């Protein structure tokens, strides 16, 4: 099991053009605002274990904004963190595609079928003593990339329409190289999971189906200063996003 964790303050920031070197651990990048004021430093940290490759990447993003149709108190987001990594489930080699051009297709032969991708099998909210954990249950074989980042304006991939989610902050969770295996996931009407009570750190979760190997989910938080940690597990293939006030 590997974990990525962090907390920070909200700022209107942009990259200063620096590029991370994949071969140098702990590479640092200065984070600046539009008026060239330094507000922080991003640092990449790598970790790995048997059957699991996880790179934790803390990046600059923007903070979430509450949905005007579903307001939650007067809290304003003060987070800008981002996390990223990769998880191998099942037999990662079984889903690898054949590189086009290396195996020519003879006249009359059928082209090779597309590779079978790992699947998102479930999305659940588990209550914990410290808050709530959103668990993305996975299945199949292959490698899954994931990112979790606070966003100011949550948008569904490929559209300009804002996602109708409530919460002081909005955490966008993207899974790449994945097919959705949940019948209730629909692009027009997403699956909506909600919690009850002020003690919950999560207001609601919206899940959308896979589109070109990308599955998007959005988590609305009750607090404007939530603490987030992300764990990836191969024993029970899952990505768990723990959120506390």
Q: Brief description of this entry?
A:
The chain has 245 residues and is an all-beta fold.
Description:
There is one protein chain. This protein is mostly beta strands. It has one domain. Helices cover 0% and strands 45% of the residues. The strands form three sheets. It has a six-stranded mixed sheet, with no helix packed on it. Mean pLDDT is 74; it is low at 6-73.
Helix count from the secondary structure assignment: 0
Walk across the major sheet and give the strand order: 1-15-16-8-7-11
Mean pLDDT: 74
The helical percent reads under 10%
CA gyration radius, whole angstroms: 19 Å
**Low-pLDDT stretches:** 6-73
Number of strands: 16
What is the 3D form?
elongated
Percentage of residues in DSSP E strands: 35-45%
- Distance N to C terminus: 23 Å
Characterize the main sheet: 6 strands, mixed
Strand/helix succession: EEEEEEEEEEEEEEEE
How many domains is the backbone divided into?
1
Structural class: mainly beta
Q: Secondary-structure map with pairings?
A:
Elements: E1 2-6, E2 13-15, E3 28-33, E4 38-49, E5 52-57, E6 82-89, E7 119-128, E8 131-139, E9 142-150, E10 169-176, E11 179-180, E12 191-194, E13 202-207, E14 214-221, E15 227-233, E16 238-244
Parallel strand pairs: 7-11
Antiparallel strand pairs: 1-15, 2-3, 3-4, 4-5, 6-9, 7-8, 8-16, 9-10, 10-14, 12-13, 13-14, 15-16
